[in-house]
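Fold Annotation — chain and its backbone
Encoding — discrete vocabulary of local shapes
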Amino acid sequence: MAIKENVEVFAVKQALSYLDKDPEKNLPKLLDWFDRFDRKDTLKTQREMIRSVVMDPDNNWHKLVMSLWEDIDPGVRNRFFENFIINGCLLGYQRQKEYKEKYNCNIPWAILLDPTSACNLKCTGCWAAEYGNHMNLTYEEMDDIVNQGVELGTYVYLFTGGEPLVRKKDIIRLCEEHPDCVFSTFTNGTLIDEAFAKEMLRVKNFVPAISIEGFEDATDSRRGNGTYQKIIRAMNILKENRLPFGISCCYTSANAEVIGSEEYFDQMINMGAKFAWFFTYMPVGKGAVKELMADAAQREMMYHKIREFRQTKPIFTVDFWNDGEYVGGCIAGGRCYCHINANGDIEPCAFIHYSDSNIREKSLLEAYRSPLFMGYHDNQPWNENMLRPCPVLDNPGSLTRIVEESHAKSTDYQNLESAKEFSDKCVDTAEKWAPVANRLWEESHGGCAACGRCGKAENERTFHRCP
């Protein structure tokens, strides 16, 4: 690490220590200091947002920030702040930017990786349920992925699967070996127990996101009888040990109204969740249950509900489809993240099971410069309307084209599905969502997606670009 980076790290650590003494009183002062420190305005938007809420003790975001001192173990909280703010955002972003400019390719802020294809549940509509214990990344392979990623500026790693906690020991070992990184996992939560909570307290840099489908009936109907109570037990264990956690919610045609309800949000907050990731169901794989796809009315309902609760509830929420306008559209293909499956295939997205690179044959940088990833790099955003960000669900045909041009192969472990077969399942849903998304965009941006002025559409898929 350069001398300059060492100085910056020391300065931020001192600032966090200062904040710990009296967070409510010192946070405004710390933001003033941060303004001077962040000379390149790397986090200008985030700083302005935080400043707008910390002065109002009744604001939901103020309550969320203060709860991190009330509810979370100090060592865990400080390690998270150091790794997320210093490494993941400041140092990492600068390093990513250098490599992006040098190689003219995407460098991700986060990497999702599957330690295993195995899972202890068999959830309806989940592609992993069909895979079984066929594939696993070795510890050495996962360690090498993290080493390569850090070199390029990626400090955030999220485990997917399968059920990642089938590999508890290796995950904890990675946390130990890379104390400067943030590790998280999408987990069904059923394998979290007191012993694992103690390990989380010890390593201090692991934060789970527990998958939950709504209340007991909805969760158990998709994940199996008794699953909901096991999840609640896991949440109680984490809360009692003062460990941060969030929830991961897949909204479908069967549960969208429940997941979007105030009652559900309030219960998750009361359970101790600090963040919530929202996904819409994707018909991945030949065995996908297409009927579970949320319709346009349900997706619009989630659009409005999440924005409403974001202004009123003390929980950080992200809707990975409907929040495209805040992140410039699709974040896959290494633009913000990529996915590595349990066979080592490097994929643009956790929902896009096509690849032209494998970690056993190429470095991460080589994969980011591969034809498939460059197809993402050169074509994002897929639509000028950022409420239609996805190359499959919102713009079917876009993925098909770059997969065929790059000669990428299906990475499905059992039943190979072409990109066209996958995309064709989304055509009807995309056509029904398009007019809704266009209306919402015009209402919030006052005109066409390109400039916000004229509102003239060139065709059914994209807005035109104004002179």
In short: The chain has three domains: 1-88, 103-351, 371-443. Confidence is low (pLDDT under 50) at residues 449-467. DSSP finds 19 helices and eleven strands in the chain. The longest strand covers residues 182-187.
